[in-house]
Specification:
This protein is α+β, with helices and mostly antiparallel strands and 397 residues long. The protein is built from seven helices and 18 strands. A hairpin with a 5-residue loop joins strand 8 and strand 9. Helix 1 packs parallel to helix 4. Bound molecules: flavin-adenine dinucleotide.
Length: 397
Amino acid sequence: MNKHFDAIIIGAGIQGAGCAQALAARGYSVLVVEKATVGSGTSSRSSKLIHGGLRYLESGQFSLVKKSLRERALLQQLAPTLVKKKAFILPVYRKQRLKPWQLYMGLSLYALLGKLKPDARFRKLPNREWPALSGLKQQGLLAVYQYYDAQTDDLALTQAVMRSAQTFNCELREHCEFNQASKNADGNWQVSLFQLPQETPQAFTVSCKLLINAAGPWAELVQQQIIGAPSAPPLALVKGSHIELDLALSDSIYYLESPIDQRAIFIMPWQGHTLVGSTEKLHSSSPESQQPSLDEIEYLYQSVQHYFPDCKANIINQWSGLRVLPNHTNTTGKRPFSGRQRDTIIAADDAKSPQLISLYGGKLTAYRITANEVAKMSERRLGVTGKAVDTATLALD
Ligand SMILES: Cc1cc2nc3c(=O)[nH]c(=O)nc-3n(C[C@H](O)[C@H](O)[C@H](O)COP(=O)(O)OP(=O)(O)OC[C@H]3O[C@@H](n4cnc5c(N)ncnc54)[C@H](O)[C@@H]3O)c2cc1C
């Protein structure tokens, strides 16, 4: 092949697709290489929420919540068929960790960060409405709040963002694995790739001015395959699992405290069925091996039985995804990952003129903001083309 690109992006999850869209819309030539298919990694295994992240207020991540709420509103406009407003029901019980007044304060702050727009408002459901809540356990119930966030099809959203990138000068290669990169004498990257799946993978090289590592849970491994690259920051892979039940429990999303460890659990409508998630388990083996354990399945199913005692549902599907979070030495306690930063870590090899930009972690919801930051950094290396299109104006379908 031996083609030259302004930028090569490794990984076609939401972050890789977002960066491809932002860079291609600025007029750069872009190649995206994806070892499987678009969105087949974490970006099809999330809780599928486009949200500010009410629970991140507890750990003081106000700026993440504020920008995510802004993105939620924008994505609802840009992708009305993919990002839909949903009512969230937040019941509060007597023995729960968070008390009604704390949730009231949290929801008030959430509304303020959402600029008190109609979608940011919440209400307390009167007691007379409680019995109509999908068979929700009434015993010990102290209060029920209702607020709004949004739900998406994460895979379809990632594919739509990639399609949008491809309307510009962006080439996508699926089943194409990044193998190694090293710098040429002219300062450009020489990138070696394998085209899969074939009995004998076909090796070929391409070159670029700027390399972007958006390999999600594989980003640390990819970083090690880039000769001369700075090491990744200390990271932890944290597995999150979901189960799918064979019935439609509700049209709203229930936001509940797990009766086992008081973590947040969502019970969500999903394609005529119900999705329950997620867990948080430290994952120390290869990113390829992501399967829910029996413990995780039981943990999720028990939450459904605890809050909806009459629900007789069967599990018809189950899967896991891997969060990339900053590593801490303290992994003890009931909720060891709850306070960790959920924002993307964007690391460049050279702040003035980056040749390598690596992304670690982050939220599906904030992909466009991350991509814009990456695109701004890229201008320092690639120059300004003068024909930039703002991704905030690009419809997604
Ligand atoms: C359980 C769970 C629930 C979540 N829920 C939400 C939520 O509700 N809302 C929200 O906003 N965020 C949520 N998130 C976060 C969000 O899903 C992730 O941050 C996001 O999907 C990560 O996208 P990514 O592009 O970084 O990674 P990925 O989607 O994993 O993409 C990385 C891609 O790189 C490819 N790749 C890896 N190595 C190579 C290589 N050598 N060559 C070529 N390609 C390679 C992989 O195949 C993969 O497709 C959740 C995360 C988890 C785990």
